[in-house]
Fold this protein.
Amino acid sequence: MEKVSWYPGHIKTAKQKIKKVLSVIDIIFEVVDARLPVSSNILFDNESSLFKNKKRFLLLNKSDLVNINELKYWQDYFRSTGEYVDVITTCSSGRGTAKTRKEILKLLEHYKKEKNDKSRYRKNSSLRVMIAGFPNVGKSSALNILSPAKHVRVGNKPGVTRGTQWIKLKDGIELLDTPGVIFPDKIGRGRGMKLLFCKLIPMKAEKCDPEMLLAECLPYLLNKYKWVSTQLKEKCGFDPSEKNFFFQYAKKCGRLISGEEDIHWATSSVLNMFFSGKIKGYIMDEVEEED
């Protein structure tokens, strides 16, 4: 895989709709996967200039899957860029939802009042907020944190939201949920592999198998985070740095094909541990990283 080829028609259509509706949007919530704060951030794609001159908040979602010290580092980094009004963290587990909702609603109420105070003619106009980001970073989950009812389908796969939809949050505040935005021509092999590893792009679409993906990403994680190695050893029973790790794991679990260890099953099983969040505590990006 040299460049990402996955580009469903509904995403292309959604991008066109987003461009048309931006003129009425007051605030944008950009949602990223905290494990990939750069790679899953559309700010780093050229077309993100569409969002310039808008008040923007960054939501680091799935923050419970990363190391807390690194998370704080990235929060400080994004705040220092001056691109965002604030940087907020949300959890995939839903922990702290009530507190997060209260904080965000307070901010939105402030900006609604500010908008109406500045208007010469319309003193009771709605504040319109858009939620945007890569596929499967948790946009719909973020919207459901704010929404008084569970309006939006949520799933751990890219493409769950397939069309734009307006949702009334409360009197005078409306939110627009959008499908994941992706710029495939901007995503090279290195970035694409990380997006695949965090399940932001479907593996089948890129014809990437578990063995290839783990060979690309696992050495980096094992070298950088000793606790990733510890978690894998606890779950699989063997040191993941050993050359025959997957053979040992398949044999231990009785996964054999014609008497030989089923390596495809072993690698798929380990990859699913990352997909499901059973292995956590890592960030795969570096500051000012370029693909």
